[in-house]
Amino acid sequence: MQRKPDYLRINKLPVGEEASRILRIIKENNLNTVCTEASCPNKGKCFSEGTATFLILGPTCSRNCKFCNITSGNLSKEDFSEGERVAEASLKMGLKYVVITSVTRDDLEDKGANAFARTIRAVRVKLPQVKIEVLTPDFDGREDLLKIVLDEKPYVFNHNIETVRRLTPIIRPQANYERSLNLLEMAKKINQKQITKSGLMVGLGENFEELKETFLDLSKAKVDRLTIGQYLAPSRNHYPVQKYYTLEEFKELKNIALNCGIKGVFSAPFVRSSYNAQLFDTNGPP
């Protein structure tokens, strides 16, 4: 194991009045966030800036990816009022850009697609002008389920490829690299104007050639936006970090991805799928 570089040492704990307000709203509305459940390193910063990424369909996942800190097993019963509470929390937070993600729910007949649709509709009732980004699981690659979500016209449709082709069976044993690519490509075929986005982690044992192949695959699938961040093992029980990328390497990866044809690339150590998602619409990705 390599020693963690100093630039990867930050305070994850939410501090300040604004963070307290956000945490109170989340608790009062009985909601989950991926910020907390996945132990995101940006949790403190995002809460302190008055934002969060909502995690619907419960805090437990039907899959058990080697990199993820979200608990698997003991799946909760689907909560049909959850979307209304997400909408109420978004209103209280004063959000102009709402990001909604979920655990994977292979146990549900619709894989959670209707929960995304309900939540989008509920948020739009409370906040008609808000931009909504969804980060979905793969829905088993089913076009009919993807269409349920896209029919609600989210501003951005996001599905993470997570890692390179070779490492997918190891890191995401219940997922499939081609299925994720196909889902992103399918989203563009359903609606050519739909903004699509994906994200991946580095530091799992991939090399630059494999990353370039992934960038080209995503470009071929007409993905518009890409996030690239450093993998940080949540615990000793998770897949170990194989490499810490330098700041210069993150800049190099951004340039490679742009040259592969992806229009917007956000590449830095603490970048995560939904971190500063609204920046793509203001000043463009950093």
Structure description:
- This protein is an alpha/beta fold.
- The chain has one domain: TIM Barrel, CATH 3.20.20.
- Helices cover 35% and strands 15% of the residues.
- The chain has helices at residues 17-28, 34-37, 43-48, 82-93, 113-126, 143-150, 168-171, 177-190, 208-220, 247-259, and strands at 32-33, 53-56, 60-61, 71-72, 97-102, 131-135, 156-158, 195-202, 225-230, 264-267.
- The strands form 2 sheets. Strands 1-2-5-6-7-8-9-10 form an 8-stranded mixed beta sheet. A two-stranded parallel sheet has the order 3-4.
- Strand 9, helix 10 and strand 10 (264-267) form a beta-alpha-beta unit.
- Helix 5 runs parallel beside helix 6 and helix 6 (143-150) packs across helix 8 (177-190).
- The longest helix is centred in the middle third of the chain and has 14 residues, at 113-126.
- The mean pLDDT is 90.
Helix count, per DSSP? 10
| CATH superfamily heading | Aldolase class I
Q: Which term fits the overall shape? A: globular
Total strand count, please?
10
Q: Given this structure, which CATH class is correct?
A: Alpha Beta
What structural class should be given to the helix and strand makeup? alpha/beta
The residue fraction in helices comes out at 25-40%
CATH topology: TIM Barrel
Biggest pleated sheet: 8 strands, mixed
Please write the string of helix (H) and strand (E) elements: HEHHEEEHEHEHEHHEHEHE
Specify Rg, calculated over alpha carbons: 18 Å
The number of domains: 1
- Please identify, by name, the CATH architecture: Alpha-Beta Barrel
Low-confidence stretches: none
Q: What is the mean pLDDT?
A: 90
Strand order of the largest sheet: 1-2-5-6-7-8-9-10
Fraction of residues in β-strands:
5-15%
**Gap between N and C termini, in Å?**
30 Å
